[in-house]
Design brief:
With 446 residues, this protein is mostly helical. It contains 22 helices and 4 strands. It has helices at 15-20, 34-50, 82-87, 91-106, 123-138, 142-148, 164-181, 186-195, 208-212, 217-229, 238-255, 258-264, 271-284, 288-301, 306-318, 322-335, 340-352, 356-369, 374-386, 390-403, 407-420, 426-445, and strands at 30-31, 59-63, 70-74, 77-81. Strands 1-2-4-3 form a 4-stranded mixed sheet. The longest helix has 20 residues, at 426-445. It comes from Roseovarius halotolerans. This is TPR repeat-containing protein YfgC. One of its GO terms (molecular function) is metalloendopeptidase activity.
């Protein structure tokens, strides 16, 4: 799991944000884990199909934040806070959130949002999105949020905020999607029950969800009535139950204390999930031999599961057993040759072993499949530097900083790359793009 404390993936706020928010917002972190993201894809697929959206075209991304919130960015991205996921008790609750956010997409509620935020598949776009989310979580004012988003006027509505009419429409559409997908609509009722009473609190005590998704007693009653009307459409789905247990189980194992995890490791009833959680808990307690033994037992139950090998690779990598880590990640790549996060981890392990040229190949593949992983960009720059290609190292570093919203630093490295790379080359032209973005940001600050 690529948490800040583990593998260190970080998407920072735009530099502009820190100086403009009335209430300083802390940085938000994307939590990138191949196993959890795959599980979310499996859970989302039937709901997205029912909504007329492509299951492969919509990313379900987790934000490492204890607040209870979920939001959409564009037609391609749904964000869920880890705190909200940890509050859920079953797959239907999670699927109801996905259905509701999908309804905001299909009902056209994104049309009025700033055009420049539709690049959220890039890490630069994500930096702005997370800045806005952090502003809302911190209780920043509407004017501050608008500046953080680069809006031209403080009258611009906050990026994530929906009207009550939009919420009511999304509730009705979302429940129809759940019914069509055979998902128990009571999941939506259970989710809304978590937020009851929020609107009685002051704005600064409300969870962000209450500020971005207006709640009311009437709305809750409508959801309950609609859910009851669709109750006969619910079908048991053991596969959804499994993937929910696995995603929440792994998330909680990394975010709760090891002692807490070990006492609850088997609560899901799935033996492989139990062993995976035990492996994470032992790893976080620096008991590597116990961690490896547990994950090996899980692998014995699911020998063709790439994500278990990926977790084994992480345990070994962070225990500085690089050769064994490379072997585990290599097996994961064999089983999932196109998975960007696994490719990136394999490249990182190869680099730790000193196999720099081979590492570069896999890191390039990872970047080509998912350009939002700042850690891959950092490692890729390191492979260029180790091979003496300082121009490309500076270029990739500049692009990484640009993706993180650190445009002043990006400009410095882009200028260095421009001076070192052959004029007119592809790399030189990429450096000019970064320089242009950095200069535009500098002019905007003046």
């Amino acid at each position: 799991m690529q948490l800040l404390r583990a593998l260190g993936l970080f998407l920072g706020l735009f530099a502009l944000t820190a100086t403009t928010l009335a209430s300083p917002a802390r940085a938000l972190t994307l939590l990138r884990d191949p196993d959890i993201e795959y599980a979310l894809k499996q859970l989302a697929a039937p709901v997205l199909k029912a909504a007329g959206l492509s299951p492969t075209g919509v990313d379900i991304l987790l934000i490492d934040d204890r607040n209870l919130n979920a939001f959409v960015v564009d037609r391609d991205s749904i964000f869920i806070h880890s705190g909200l996921m940890l509050k859920m008790n079953n797959a239907a609750m999670l699927q109801s959130v996905i259905a509701h956010e999908a309804a905001h997409i299909t009902n056209g509620h994104l049309v009025r949002r700033p055009v420049n935020m539709r690049n959220a598949r890039t890490a630069a776009g994500l930096g702005s999105v997370l800045a806005a989310a952090a502003a809302i979580a911190a209780g920043a004012g509407e004017a501050a949020g608008a500046v953080a988003l680069g809006a031209q006027t403080t009258a611009q509505r906050l990026f994530f905020v929906h009207t009550r009419a939009e919420e009511n429409a999304a509730d009705q559409s979302g429940l129809r999607y759940l019914a069509a997908a055979g998902v128990d609509p009571q999941g939506a009722v259970e989710m809304m029950d978590i937020f009851r009473g929020q609107e009685a609190l002051s704005q600064y005590r409300q969870d962000p969800y209450a500020r971005t998704h207006p709640l009311s007693a009437d709305r809750f009653r409508v959801i309950k009535r609609l859910a009851d009307a669709h109750a006969d459409k619910a079908r048991a789905n053991p596969e959804s139950d499994y993937w929910f247990a696995r995603a929440k189980g792994k998330l909680s194992a990394f975010q709760r204390s090891p002692k807490w995890t070990l006492t609850r490791a088997g609560e899901s009833g799935y033996e492989d999930v139990k062993l995976m959680r035990q492996a994470v808990a032992h790893h976080r307690s620096s008991q590597t031999s116990k961690a490896v033994a547990a994950i090996d037992r899980a692998i014995a139950l699911r020998p063709k599961d790439p994500f278990l090998y990926e977790l084994k690779g992480q345990i070994l990598m962070e225990s500085r057993n690089f050769r064994a880590a490379t072997a585990a990640y290599g097996r994961a790549v064999n089983l999932a040759p196109d998975h960007a996060l696994i490719l990136g981890s394999y490249g990182r392990a190869l680099m730790a072993e000193g196999k720099v040229a081979e590492a570069q190949q896999y890191l390039e593949k990872s970047r080509a499949r998912d350009g939002r992983d700042a850690r891959v960009m950092r490692d890729l720059a390191a492979t260029h530097a180790r091979q003496g290609n300082n121009g490309m190292a500076s270029l990739v570093t500049s692009e990484r900083y640009a993706m993180m919203g650190r445009l002043e630093d990006a400009g410095i490295h882009a200028q260095r790359a421009s001076d070192l790379l052959p004029r007119g080359s592809t790399g030189w032209r990429r450096a000019q793009d970064v320089l242009s973005a950095a200069k535009a940001a500098e002019n905007k600050r003046r």
